[in-house]
Inverse folding.
């Protein structure tokens, strides 16, 4: 595979791939588990609105929670069965906090609702997007942003290029790789549908050169299309959307802009395959391919129903082979420790790695920074991580912001190459959250001050008004008095006149 | 929740980096021994011993883990560089005192590893040069030029207790460096072509010294290959020194030594690959490294030609260390997606 017209970004790292662990076997299928736990929040945006109550019977593919507004996604029953309960359960999230979930007890009949394929070639774009808003499809690369929103186009900036992200740059993860090997047609068809909906002139697939079989499969599937399959070097983080766009097109998405502002939209391979399945087969988003790898006895990829307890997946992979029983969700560069093996498989779960001291040794003692700037060489954003570390550590947050802390994508390359074992990314996460919190409290303080200023102004104004009113009143009273005096004087004068007249008459 | 990603690292430890630097010094040291005998080994030994004892004491006072910070190797690097910078016939207390001052005032008063503003070895060297100018300008003459019969043990005696040697032996062993010799001879209105007839001059620089420089060059190339240092500093420094020397040389070749002489004399090569490449006291941005190297090259030349000292590396490095924060802040690279 040769690189043609590839634009290499600075930095990046190439860790041991460890991908072949989980690519020996084809994508397996997990049997329907005894229960399915479906979180109402599996996507970016508003929590889905509950549509069922305990005791309800549901069919496979039926909506059990509905998208709430535009930036939200529906949740469908992954199989037929009974709604057991709606309760708070622990989620596969770094916070480890519980959230509301629907628990389904499957009836093992796996009865579908009536599937309604959509003849997408005939429908207009708005109708298609409306239909897709019911599909439950979100970005399956890990960002879980509702897909239909990404298909809407801005009139002022048409989409020129659709980029299909097939880079899968994190070590260990192979779910996209296996999907491409086995279902390249679905991906290419899905990409064509997305290209049509977006009215994009061209479509480019970016794939790392370590996935030869997947590349061949895509190449074959795309033979009769205009879709271009472009090979990019295996350098982490090539799968980061902005880095991939640069690799493929040599375009840097400017700070604080999104790729759509430049007429480029990016979808993950699994996402476009899901679009295909929804429109062509009428199957909503109820499962995904998950890599289970690391220290488990039989690493493999499985097509897993959402809501399946992770423990079932681990059991399918032969169970854990070491005592620590620690599992990481995502890859080793950006993943996080799972709070429990009982969390459900969600739309964001692309890979679960069983940790072991051999694979991921405990971090070595931290030494002082020696300013060797290896981190700066490795940073794909061209930041100066050693300066950001210095500012974050000493809580010089404004300085950290000035040195573009918020451009950091937390890819972990800096920590990966640090001779002093400094957990740099953790410092940046801390500094970012501190700055955000400070900005919020500053904003709150500003609002409070404005309110107080307004209140003081109002009190002042009211005081003034009252004083004016009193003055007015006082003035009014004086006038009345003067008036009365006048009246009485006149009356007295009149009286005198009368008396004089009477006296004159008497005389 | 513990979110400690990335879970994997692939980096040489600080110790490995520092020991590779020490390893890279070996060819230069070997050639040093070949040209001058064992004196330099004794100096390195004394420097190492002093740095370990001094750092252990300071770390104990500062309640820091002694083993970790001795084994990081940074103290040894500074001590070896200082031992290689001083005359190899200086009395033993020179290197002991110099190392003690260098590690205390050059490193630990600033907070130890990673916090020092100045290059510790050059700080130690500058203090010694100012305090003991006579001792610091008495250099050893290469073995091949010694006329009297000198035993190898004399090289140890002259360091440990020079009173054991006759005055003739001491005189026979010492001389000025070529840079120093040129400086004094030029004041006597000698043309350079005559001055360089002296036996202490070799093919490119000083006899013996040029050989050591080649050893340092080999070590420096090893450090580049191992990616311990980047090309920016050595290239910009040597280029800057070479270019300014060329300009002067082309104007008056009988007053100004050739650019190659400047590059191969004194500590130029050691400075290029081992001294200005100290990451802690140097700039971190690629552009900053280039400016830093250029400025030091110019300053070294200016001090050598117009200053009061024959060699200007220590002062040039210390002066430029002051500007490092400024250089770094002015040479921030363009961020991805920024204009």
């Amino acid at each position: 595979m040769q690189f043609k017209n590839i634009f290499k970004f600075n930095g990046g790292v190439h860790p041991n791939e460890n991908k072949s662990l989980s690519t020996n076997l084809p994508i397996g299928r997990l049997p329907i588990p005894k229960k399915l736990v479906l979180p109402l929040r599996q996507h970016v945006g508003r929590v889905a609105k509950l549509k069922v109550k305990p005791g309800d019977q549901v069919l496979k593919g039926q909506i059990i929670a509905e998208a709430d507004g535009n930036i939200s996604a529906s949740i469908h029953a992954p199989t037929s069965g009974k709604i057991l309960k709606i309760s708070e359960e622990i989620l596969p999230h770094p916070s480890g906090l519980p959230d509301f979930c629907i628990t389904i007890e499957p009836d093992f009949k796996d009865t579908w609702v009536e599937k309604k394929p959509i003849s997408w070639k005939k429908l207009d774009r708005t109708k298609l997007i409306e239909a897709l808003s019911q599909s439950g499809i979100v970005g399956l690369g890990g960002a879980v942003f509702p897909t239909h929103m990404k298909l809407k186009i801005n009139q002022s900036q048409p989409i020129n290029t659709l980029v299909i992200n097939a880079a899968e740059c994190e070590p260990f993860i192979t779910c996209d790789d296996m999907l491409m090997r086995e279902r390249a047609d679905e991906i290419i068809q899905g990409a064509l549908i997305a290209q049509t909906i977006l009215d994009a002139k061209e479509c480019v697939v970016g794939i790392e050169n370590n996935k030869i079989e997947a590349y061949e499969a895509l190449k074959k599937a795309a033979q009769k299309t205009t879709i271009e399959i472009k090979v990019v070097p295996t350098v982490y983080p090539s799968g980061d959307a902005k880095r991939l766009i640069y690799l493929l097109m040599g375009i840097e998405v400017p700070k604080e802009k999104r790729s759509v502002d430049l007429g480029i939209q990016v979808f993950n391979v699994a996402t476009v395959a899901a679009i295909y399945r929804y429109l062509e087969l009428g199957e909503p988003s109820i499962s995904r391919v998950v890599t289970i790898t690391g220290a488990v006895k039989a690493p493999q990829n499985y097509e897993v129903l959402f809501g399946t307890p992770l423990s079932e997946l681990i059991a399918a992979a032969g169970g854990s082979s070491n005592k620590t029983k620690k599992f990481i969700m995502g890859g080793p560069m950006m993943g996080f420790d799972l709070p429990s093996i009982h969390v459900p498989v969600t739309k964001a779960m692309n890979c679960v790695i069983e940790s072991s001291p051999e694979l991921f040794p405990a971090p070595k003692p931290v030494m002082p920074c020696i300013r060797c700037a290896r981190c700066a060489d490795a940073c794909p954003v061209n930041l100066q991580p050693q300066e950001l570390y210095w500012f974050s550590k000493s809580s010089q947050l404004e300085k950290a912001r000035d040195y573009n802390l918020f451009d950091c994508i937390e890819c972990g390359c800096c920590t990966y190459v640090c001779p002093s074992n400094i957990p740099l990314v953790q410092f940046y996460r801390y500094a970012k959250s501190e700055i955000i919190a400070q900005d919020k409290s500053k904003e709150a303080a500003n609002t409070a001050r404005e309110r107080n200023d307004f209140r003081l102004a109002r009190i002042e104004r009211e005081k003034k008004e009252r004083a004016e009113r009193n003055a007015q009143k006082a003035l009014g009273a004086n006038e009345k008095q003067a008036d009365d005096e006048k009246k009485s004087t006149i009356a007295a004068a009149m009286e005198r006149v009368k008396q004089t007249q009477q006296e004159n008459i008497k005389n | 929740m513990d979110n400690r990603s990335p879970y994997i690292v692939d980096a040489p430890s600080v110790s490995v980096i520092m020991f590779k630097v020490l390893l890279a010094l070996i060819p230069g040291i070997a050639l040093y021994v070949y040209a001058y005998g064992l004196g330099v080994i004794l100096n390195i030994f004394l420097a190492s011993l002093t740095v370990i004892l001094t750092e252990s004491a300071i770390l104990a006072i500062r309640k820091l883990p002694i083993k970790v910070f001795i084994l990081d190797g940074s103290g040894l690097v500074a001590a070896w560089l200082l031992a290689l910078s001083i005359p190899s016939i200086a009395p033993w207390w020179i290197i002991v005192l110099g190392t003690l001052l260098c590690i205390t005032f050059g490193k630990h008063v600033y907070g130890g590893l990673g916090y020092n503003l100045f290059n510790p070895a050059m700080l130690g060297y500058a203090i010694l040069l100012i305090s003991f100018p006579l001792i610091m300008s008495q250099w050893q003459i290469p073995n091949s030029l010694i006329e009297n019969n000198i035993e190898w043990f004399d090289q140890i005696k002259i360091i440990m207790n020079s009173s054991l040697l006759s005055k003739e032996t001491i005189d026979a062993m010492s001389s000025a460096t070529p840079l120093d010799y040129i400086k004094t001879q030029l004041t006597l209105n000698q043309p350079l072509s005559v001055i360089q007839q002296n036996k202490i001059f070799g093919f490119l620089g000083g006899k013996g010294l040029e050989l050591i420089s080649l050893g340092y060059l080999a070590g420096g190339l090893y450090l580049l290959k191992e990616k311990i240092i980047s090309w920016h500093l050595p290239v910009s420094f040597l280029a800057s020194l070479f270019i300014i020397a060329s300009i002067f040389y082309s104007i008056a070749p009988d007053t100004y030594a050739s650019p190659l002489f400047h590059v191969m004399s004194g500590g130029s090569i050691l400075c290029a690959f081992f001294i200005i490449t100290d990451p802690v006291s140097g700039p971190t941005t690629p552009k900053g490294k280039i400016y830093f190297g250029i400025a030091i090259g110019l300053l070294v030349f200016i001090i050598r030609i117009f200053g009061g000292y024959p060699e200007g590396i220590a002062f040039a490095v210390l002066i430029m260390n002051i500007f490092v924060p400024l250089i770094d802040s002015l040479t921030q690279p363009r961020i991805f997606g920024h204009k």
Summary: Chain A touches chain B through 63 residues (CB under 8 Å). The radius of gyration of chain A is 34 Å.
